[in-house]
Task: structure prediction
Amino acid sequence: MSARPLTHLRHVDLAVPDYDKQLDFYAGVWGLTKVAEDSGIAFLAAEGSPESYVVRLRKAEEKRLDLVSYGAASREDVDTLAERLLAQGVRLISRPGEADTPGGGYGFRFFDVDGRTIEVSADVGVRRHRKIEERESIPVKLSHVVLNSPDLNRTRQWYERHLGFRLSDTLSSPHLGEVMHFMRISSQHHSMAIAQGPHTALHHISFEMRGLDEYLRGSGRVIRAGFKKVWGPGRHLAGDNTFTYFLDPHGNTVEYTTELECLDEDTWHPHVYDFSRPEVTDQWGTANPMNELIAKESFNDPDRGCFIAPPV
Result:
């Protein structure tokens, strides 16, 4: 196994009290496809992605982030990573074994330093997917996930040490210091970012669209459907990607994006961007200005699932 054991982001799993409303949002206006459902659990795929699913919804009494799942190249890499994490004192939830979810596969789960459940799997079946057509404004794939941490640099260092993430860029300001680290496991600018927050929570989940036209059409559809637009449309400097952020029915922030930067890893050096400069948060100047209210929405509710493994 290489120093970088993960290959890509697979799916993000959410638990919510109002399961039906949440499912209607993701499988309706947001544009995902329900591929399986059983006893208050639904698996949702992106039509352009080979992943068996990119979001799992579970009916629960309390809202929480159930887990974040990453891919590994092989079963052998899964076994090697599990043994390495165990030797490093990481708390495993399960040992490597067969998965009973759409696509199956072989994987295991463990807690990160903040108590989130992380899953790593390999040998997952590929879903029959398709090319997203011009003007088809539905997600192509899951792009990235951003996590709130009360100790930004401790979390960054944990992911670098244990899972081989590398720093791409940092957002900082003269008054607040460092507020976000963009982390990668491939040439994609980030598959995860870590944001400074008052508590451990999900910051946002991002979905990639086909192109600029599809991104804007999708953003317009969600706006017209009456869901709260938090921020956008605009274009970030770090990652050079577009953004429009919305709240799902349970207050989780979700993003449409496209054109996320791919890096030359041999020559890339991380930047520190001053996010108090408006051209850093939005190169275009089309988004509503970043302010405390937008930041507060992204703090989300404190995660009730820290160091508590999801039941499924």
